Amino acid sequence: MGVSERKRREFAIRERNIIETAIKLFQLRHPSMVKMDDIAKQLEIGRGTIYLHFKSKDDLMARIQLEDYERLRERLQDCLKAGSAIEMARSALRTYIEHCLGDKNMYLVAKQCGDSLNIDNVSKEMREKLSTERNTRLSILEKVYKQSKNENLTNNKGAYPNVAVAWGMIRGAVEVLLDGHFQKEIKSEKSYIETIEDVLFYGLFPGLVGEEKQ
């Protein structure tokens, strides 16, 4: 291994260590309460070294959010392999819920990073990556909608109004669990998730009304 290759490898390893250390600290304290000095101290490196990798803490938080979105999008892409629109939608719904609840700490860290970052302090390259990732994720959901339209299942409100409302409903329903609301009233997480599916699908897909649930 040449010197330049070794330096690139060391740079990549250090960058990954910065990200992982930031995530661990963000799990203990809200990202807004963690300073770059805290991350540097934990890694026993100078704060200036971190800035070789990230323009700002906002840039670092954006990277954490981006990687979480990438993991979700990769899983959502598999939903398009399902045979019908309902199977696609059901798979997408369950994929999103599993993504959020499968690693609750990571989901909350990524969400808090997104809520806290000042986009003006994020590098142009990272802003472009976030935008591209968002558009790619939306295109997957749009394909599910178009398939449901081809099968005469969906309402006539249009792709993005439906996608936006569905996304908001699902995210809100998931955060009810994450925030600990209705702990006494919701006896079964499985039953609650099935209820999300029922409420969502019969609103999005009026063509299902009167049909036996799949």
Helical content stands at over 70%
Number of E-type strands? 0
Q: Sum up the overall morphology in one term.
A: globular
Strand content bin: under 5%
Q: Strand count, sense and closure of the main sheet? A: none
End-to-end CA span? 57 Å
Using only CA atoms, what is the Rg?
Answer: 20 Å
Low-confidence stretches: none
Q: Spell out the helices and strands N to C.
A: HHHHHHHHH
Summarize this structure briefly.
With about 210 residues, this protein is mostly helical.
Structural notes for this entry:
The chain has 214 residues and is mainly alpha-helical. It has helices at 3-28, 36-43, 47-51, 57-77, 85-102, 104-116, 124-150, 159-178, 189-204. Helix 4 packs across helix 6. The mean pLDDT is 89.
Helices and strands in order, then pairings?
Layout: H1 3-28, H2 36-43, H3 47-51, H4 57-77, H5 85-102, H6 104-116, H7 124-150, H8 159-178, H9 189-204
Helix pairs in contact: 1-2, 4-5, 4-6, 4-7, 5-6, 5-7, 5-8, 7-8, 8-9
What keyword list fits this structure?
214 residues; mainly alpha
